[in-house]
Amino acid sequence: AVPLSPQAFPLRSLRRRQPTLLVACGPAQNGAVGLVCARHLRSFDYEPTIFYPKRSPDPLHRDFTTQCEKMDIPFLSYLPTEVQLINDAYNAVVDAVLGAEGTQGTEGTEPCAAILATLRHVRIPIVSLDVPSGWAAGPLGGSGDISPDVLVSLAAPKEVARRFRGRRHFLAGRFVPEELRRKFGLSPPEYPGSDCVVAL
């Protein structure tokens, strides 16, 4: 998701003078994607802050965490329950809490449930990675879902993306090998130039 924020939220368009972004990471695969996203955001001159309350013991996730720490990306020790504090401090929130993993019932477990309860009430834009956290599988979902402004589908849009009504939808899937494209019948759009993300 390297060019995501420059395309969806150019630095000059941010409402706050400081280009601050909150990246909320869950304990599984989507959280690792969030860590990578935070690292890329820092490379593009944004100021990400990571909330990663339940760190995975997976060596790759630990490596991503270390990389973020070495880039001086701050980690929050707690997520403010006063939503206005988040609205006032950040330009947007990157939702890397559950992704497709949320379809397996983990959205009701802590710390994910508390994060989602907060994200449902923020007034700043939400950028969801792969699948908006808490969205049920299939084209229909519950009324208490978060409402992201931007969705970044990974590899291919999932079925739940049919009910995405935000302002921008991107696909990050240039990395999918041709063999997998054939196996799963994926026909991704053309990626412009050397971009790894394409707008849908």
Q: Return the string of H and E elements.
A: HEHEHEHEHEEEHE
CATH top-level class:
Alpha Beta
Q: Report, as a whole number of angstroms, the end-to-end distance.
A: 14 Å
Q: Order of strands side by side in the largest beta sheet?
A: 3-2-1-4-5-6-7-8
Write out the CATH superfamily name.
YjeF N-terminal domain
Q: Count of helical segments?
A: 6
List the domain count as a whole number: 1
Structural class: alpha/beta
Q: What share of residues are in beta strands? A: 15-25%
Q: Which geometry do the CA atoms define?
A: globular
Give the biggest sheet: 8 strands, mixed
Q: Which regions have little confidence, pLDDT < 50, spanning 5+ residues? A: none
Q: Mean pLDDT, rounded to whole units?
A: 83
Kindly state the percentage of residues in helix: 25-40%
How many beta-strand elements?
A: 8
Radius of gyration from CA coordinates? 16 Å
Protein name: YJEN3 protein
Organism: Nesospiza acunhae
Pfam families: YjeF_N
Domain YjeF N-terminal: 1-188
Descriptive report:
The protein has six helices and eight strands; from the N terminus they run αβαβαβαβαβββαβ. The chain has 200 residues and is of the alpha/beta class. The protein has a single domain (17-199), classed as YjeF N-terminal domain (Rossmann fold, 3-Layer(aba) Sandwich), CATH 3.40.50. Strands 3-2-1-4-5-6-7-8 form an eight-stranded mixed beta sheet, sandwiched between helices. Strand 1 (20-25), helix 2 (29-43) and strand 2 form a beta-alpha-beta unit. It is globular, with a radius of gyration of 16 Å.
Brief overview:
The chain has 200 residues and is α/β, with parallel strands linked by helices.
